[in-house]
Specification:
By secondary structure, the protein is an all-alpha fold. It has helices spanning 12-15, 32-66. The longest helix has 35 residues, at 32-66. The protein is 56% helix and 0% strand. It holds the Pfam family Dimer_Tnp_hAT. Residues 1-45 form the HAT C-terminal dimerisation domain. GO terms for molecular function: protein dimerization activity.
């Protein structure tokens, strides 16, 4: 999964610790370039999904218009 945040971003010694903060300020946010890449990817995926749904709707309209009731 290319949008997943790697699990290795949390040190193993603090992952199972019962006290204190698990993430320091540096590890609690994504780099701006990562956020930008994720936003662009989301935009591309949504555009493809919209284009695919429009194509499917056109295909169904063509199919239904070709049908005749006798």
């Amino acid at each position: 999964d290319f949008l997943a945040i790697p699990i290795t971003s949390v040190p193993s010694e603090s992952a199972f610790s019962s006290g204190g903060r698990l993430l320091d300020p540096h590890r609690s946010r994504l780099h701006y370039s990562t956020v930008e890449a994720m936003m662009c990817t989301r935009s591309w995926i949504m555009e493809d999904m919209q284009r695919d749904s429009e194509a499917a709707a056109e295909a169904l309209e063509g199919l239904f218009s070709a049908m005749t009731v006798e």
